Amino acid sequence: MLRHQLVVAQRNRPRPRFSWCDRAVIAALLRIVSKQRRPQLALRSSPRSVLHWHARLIAWKWTFPSRRPGRPPKPEALRQLVVRLARENPGWGYRRIHGELVGLGHTIAASTVWKILKEAGVDPSPQRTDRSWAAFLKAQASAVVATDLFHIDTVFLQRWFVLFFIEHGTRRVYIAGITRHPTGPWVTQQARNYLMDLGDHAQSIRYLIRDRGTYFTESFDAVFQAIGTRVVPTLPQAPRMNAIAERWIGSCRREATDHILITGQKHLGLIVNEYAEHYNRHRPHRTLGQRPPDPLITPEPRPASDPTPVSRHDRLGGLIHEYKQVA
Q1: What does the pLDDT profile of the chain (327 residues) look like in tens digits?
Q2: 322: closest CA among 269, 257, 268, 255?
Q3: 268 contact partners, CB below 8 Å, separation of at least 6
Q4: Among 270, 266, 212, 204, which residue's Cα sits nearest to residue 239?
Q5: Residues near 158 by Cβ (< 8 Å), separated by ≥ 6?
Q6: 49, 65, 208, 243: least CB-packed within 10 angstroms?
Q7: Dist CA 227 CA 205 (whole Å)
Q8: Are residue 211 and residue 86 in the same domain, yes or no?
Q9: What per-residue string of b and e applies to 124-138 under the rule 16 or more CB within 10 Å gives b?
Q10: Is residue 325, in this structure, part of any structural domain at all?
Q11: Cα–Cα distance measured from residue 189 to residue 147, given in angstroms and rounded to the nearest whole number
């Protein structure tokens, strides 16, 4: 036994340690030595240590793999769906999320939904509700429409005015008309035409932003007030109050009309309407997640790979290029 301890002490380690084999050998040899001789031996371990080794060996022998009690955990995909519904709908509590999951065909208890949200660190619905100005304005944008006129000078030094409407929520542009003399009756008639084209969607307009031009008369306001829309005139010399409409005017000038010599009303109408179609159907918008406003192309494009061919479509004689994946 002393010789085996010397072998353990001579091992090349910073601090020699007993392995399970060493402990078994020491414990077996120690049984041969009488109790009177044991205190006289120079042992690297005490009898108490040997008894501790034996107790650990017995515990290791009778230890079996245990299964956690209770129900099995829910699939990870279902847990991610619960967290997704909670984050996308700040006003939904765990009971509301549970009802939505039942409607989707998932068999799950409401208490399990609460437990998943708690483990994911998702706060209760009153604390998750976003009360910031950004969230408030984004919610109001879907019911706001702005209108304005901008002028274009032709190659023959004639000035034409373009009337348009733009939705704040979708950024969709509607070209109402073009005229040399924007009188009150003409602007009012274009407003009626705009609402007729919208159909039932016109009832969702709650606010209309316009400037204080003399062509926006009381009859113009009455057209929108008849459907429950509140007309909001901008303050004098405050173009930022109608910033989205002003931004579209700048985009139309920089990308289209400033690069073309326009000859007349028909030519101007072709250019402005084609640019509006490009703006609504293809041009990406940062506010919309780099997507175009037109709802006809809401499906996400398929993921592109290296050999995916791309085609180009020219507008306005090659002034504007549109790129799409080749099917």
Answers
A1: 777 777 777 666 666 666 767 777 777 777 777 777 766 666 666 667 766 767 777 777 777 666 666 677 778 888 889 888 888 887 788 888 888 888 888 888 888 888 898 888 888 776 666 555 556 566 677 789 999 999 999 999 999 999 999 999 889 999 999 999 999 999 999 999 999 998 888 888 999 999 999 999 999 999 999 999 999 999 888 888 899 999 999 999 999 999 999 999 999 999 999 999 999 988 888 877 778 888 655 556 666 565 667 788 888 888 888 877 776
A2: 255
A3: 152, 154, 160, 162, 178, 257, 262
A4: 212
A5: 180, 264
A6: 65
A7: 8
A8: no
A9: ebeebeeeeeeeeee
A10: no
A11: 14
Which segments of 120-183 does DSSP mark as H helices, in order? Answer: 125-128, 133-141
Torsional sign, CA 240, 174, 316, 306: positive
* Predicted model pTM: 0.60
Same domain, 33 and 117: no
Among 128, 154, 169, the domain boundary falls at 128
Residues 57 and 192 reside in one and the same domain: no
Give the amino acid at 40. Q
Helix (H) or strand (E) holding 312: strand 310-315
**Total domain count for the chain?**
3
CB-based contact 280:170 (threshold 8 Å): no
